[in-house]
Design goal:
6 helices, alpha+beta, FAD/NAD(P)-binding domain, three-stranded parallel beta sheet, 11 strands, elongated
Length: about 190
C-alpha cells in the first residue's frame, strides 16, 4: 500500500465517495479514509431522494438540475442497478403565503427546464390517493423527482473508484493535518 497519494479524501459518506471516485477516475492516486465504515455517519440516514425542490433556488438550481440530469440519463442497466424510479413529489401548501411563495418560484424552475406546477387540493387525490387533502390548499408538483436505492449507488461508486485504483482505509481516524505553504500536505 502506498504511503503517498495525490489526493486524500476524509469521510466515506456519499459526498466523500463521489469525490474520491472522480479523483481516482481522473488518474490521481487517491486515498479515502473514514474513522468508521462506509456511510457510517449521516449518509446512513439517506432516503435516496433525487431532489429538485430546494429552499435556496438561487444557489442550488444549477446543482440540482445537473444532478437530476445525471440520474435521468443513466443507461438502463445502471438505473436499474440503483433502483432509479421517477415517482414525482408533492410539496404541500397550507397557507396563502406559501402558495404565493411557490408561485413565485415557478418561473425560475421553468426557465431551468424543470417541470413544476401548482395543483389544487381538489386535484391532489389524483396524484396521491392516500393523501388527506382536506387541510391543505394544494401542492407544488414536481413530476421528475425520483427515488434511488442509496446504498446501491454508494457501493457502485466505490466499485468504480476501486477499479481506478482507490485506496480505501476504513476505521482510520484522522488526528491532524500537516500544512505546508498554506496547503494540506499530509494527514
Amino acid at each position: 500500500m502506498p504511503r503517498t497519494f495525490d489526493a486524500v479524501v476524509v469521510g466515506a459518506g456519499y459526498i466523500g465517495c463521489a469525490i474520491a471516485a472522480e479523483l481516482a477516475a481522473a488518474g490521481l492516486r487517491t486515498a479515502l479514509l473514514d474513522c468508521g465504515g462506509v456511510a457510517a455517519g449521516a449518509s446512513r440516514a439517506n432516503y435516496g431522494n433525487v431532489q429538485i425542490q430546494d429552499a435556496e433556488l438561487a444557489h442550488s438550481l444549477p446543482l440540482v438540475t445537473s444532478g437530476a440530469a445525471v440520474f435521468k440519463n443513466l443507461p438502463d442497466e445502471q438505473a436499474a442497478g440503483i433502483g432509479y424510479r421517477p415517482l414525482g413529489s408533492l410539496l404541500l401548501i397550507e397557507t396563502e403565503s406559501q402558495w404565493q411563495l411557490m408561485a413565485a418560484r415557478l418561473p425560475a424552475l421553468h426557465a431551468a427546464g424543470i417541470p413544476a406546477e401548482l395543483v389544487s387540493a381538489r386535484r391532489l387525490p389524483e396524484l396521491e390517493p392516500l393523501l388527506d387533502s382536506s387541510n391543505v390548499l394544494g401542492a407544488c408538483y414536481h413530476p421528475h423527482e425520483a427515488q434511488i436505492y442509496p446504498f446501491a449507488l454508494l457501493h457502485a461508486t466505490l466499485r468504480r473508484a476501486r477499479a481506478h485504483g482507490l485506496s480505501l482505509h476504513l476505521h482510520t481516524k484522522v488526528t491532524n493535518f500537516q500544512v505546508t505553504g498554506g496547503r494540506v500536505s499530509g494527514v
